[in-house]
Each structure stands twice: as C-alpha cells, then as structure tokens.
Amino acid sequence: MKEKVVGQRYSRQREEILRVVRETESHPTADWVYEQVRKTLPHVSLGTVYRNLNLLADEGLVQRVILDDGVVRFDGNTHHHHHFICTKTGKIYDVALPLDREVLAQFNAQTGFKATHIKIEFYGEKE
Amino acid sequence: MKEKVVGQRYSRQREEILRVVRETESHPTADWVYEQVRKTLPHVSLGTVYRNLNLLADEGLVQRVILDDGVVRFDGNTHHHHHFICTKTGKIYDVALPLDREVLAQFNAQTGFKATHIKIEFYGEKE
DNA sequence: TTAACTGCAAATCCTTTGCAAATCA
DNA sequence: TGATTTGCAAAGGATTTGCAGTTAA
C-alpha cells in the first residue's frame, strides 16, 4: 500500500525503511535496517537510510532509542514505553507500565523539581 | 596529594583528570575535561584524556553517563543515582531517591521480568 | 516542471590506537 | 632497569553532507 507516509513526498525507499523498522522488535541500528532494506532495494544507499530514519524519527513515526551503550537504535513502537535490557543476551524489550504518574509524583514531592516525564531502563535477566 | 590513584602507576595527568571530573557537577564530556586539564597541563593530549577517563570509569572512580542525546559524559559522583535533565537549560542534575526498590518490585510483579537494577531519567523544567 | 529525493563519495565528528620517547617505581 | 604512561598523529567507526542525476506530484 503505497500510502504517503509523511508530510513529504512518497518514496519507495522511505516506505521500505519504515516497514522494516515496524516489522521487527529488535530495536535495530541504522546499519541493520540498511541490510534489510537492501534485500528488496539492492541499490539503496546507507545515506538514504540515515536520512529517512532521522526524518521518520522527527515526524514521530519511529523512535530513536539510546541506551547505556550509546548505540543509536530505532523502535517502531511509538507509544510511550520503557525498556527492559536483558543483561545476559543484550536483548531489549519494550515495556509499558502505569508507574509513571506515581514515580513522577513521588519524585517531585521529594525533590522540588518539576519533572513532567520520565524514562526508565530496567536491567536484569529475563526470567 | 599525589596519592596513587588507581591500581596502576601514578601519573600527573591522571590525577588532574580525576580532579577535574570530581570538582565539577556539570557532567562534562571528554573534550571539556581536556580543555580544563590543559589549564594546568598545557601539553596533555586528548588521547591521554580519553585513555584515563576510560580507565577511571573501568576502575569505578568516575561514572560514564549517556542520556538521550547520545553524548558521552562523565560524572564524579559514583554513588548510585539518577538524573534530572532540565528541558529548558539542558543542565543535568544528580538525584538520589529511595524509589528503586519499590519501582523494581512493582515492575517485576507486573511484568514477570526479573529486573535487578534500574536507571531513571527525569525531564522537566527545574523549578 | 520543479521541489523532493536518491546514490555516491567525501567530509565530519568522536574516539581509539600504534609507536617512539618519557616517566614512575 | 623495566613496565606504564605519554604525546602525537594516523586510523576507525558512525553519521552527515554536497552534488549531480532521478523521480514523484
């Protein structure tokens, strides 16, 4: 379905890049996305992948994720969520939990800051 | 006090680098540390700063901090703590709060993961 | 037609590394 | 002296950018 995917003009490359990010839960790097997209568009360039990932992230169609290792990854899940990182396998899992309000409230009460949002990373071995 | 600062051999450069990181609360980058150390050791090289920051981080004498912007920073505060990032100024504040156990417990109960530690970033305008 | 997009390659940024000289123990 | 550490400069890896050609609208 060649829908116009952002405010910009349609491009096959962008469509494929978005599809790849959406179809995985692996929180891929730009390079991994590039390798995948190459399977359907062998002449795509890495520059195009970077340009489009950034554009899609700016549009809010994908999320940029940077964890402790400093590696830039992308996530097709654009709902607000946190991450669990398995310390054994390195795998990253999306986790949504209704803890935010509570933690924010406690934090603001205890510190006097006015935090409005929060990002949590959980580490441990996935049971 | 030219104490032997790590398991390795003493060096003036390493001492200065550690001092600079300890004396600021600004969560500096390697480059900022380099500029500061240059004030007392004008011939220090950026490579030496990187080498020592990494060494000190590995020894646990400083902490490496990577937040949403992907920039690698260092923190002389080696106690377990979280960060508050002012969305207006970009300033990073250390925050210690006794919320971890609680959040971890709730998270594990709700998800079935076995998270053992947690990293929280708070965003908002500093009151 | 023409503004947006692409592939390519070069440039940039941050960090690491190899090496010969200097330094600590 | 011998092992570490240094400064320097070159190498590396990830990402961005300039440009001429291509393509969607």
SSE map:
The structure is a homodimer of 127-residue chains.
Chain A: H1 12-23, H2 30-40, H3 46-59, E1 63-66, E2 72-75, E3 82-86, E4 92-95, H4 100-111, E5 114-125
Parallel strand pairs in A: 3-5
Antiparallel strand pairs in A: 1-2, 3-4
Helix pairs in contact in A: 1-2, 1-3, 2-3
The structure holds a DNA duplex (25 and 25 nucleotides).
What does this structure look like?
The structure is a homodimer of 127-residue chains. The first copy, chain A, has 127 residues and is an alpha+beta fold. Chain A folds into 2 domains: 12-75, Orthogonal Bundle (Arc Repressor Mutant, subunit A); 82-124, Ferric-uptake regulator, C-terminal dimerisarion domain (Dna Ligase, domain 1), CATH 3.30.1490. The first copy, chain A, contains 4 helices and 5 strands. The first copy, chain A, has helices spanning 12-23, 30-40, 46-59, 100-111, and strands at residues 63-66, 72-75, 82-86, 92-95, 114-125. In chain A, a hairpin with a 5-residue loop joins strand 3 and strand 4. Chains A and B meet through helix 4 and strand 5 of A and helix 4 and strand 5 of B. Strand 5 of chain A pairs antiparallel with strand 5 (114-125) of chain B. The structure holds a DNA duplex (25 and 25 nucleotides).
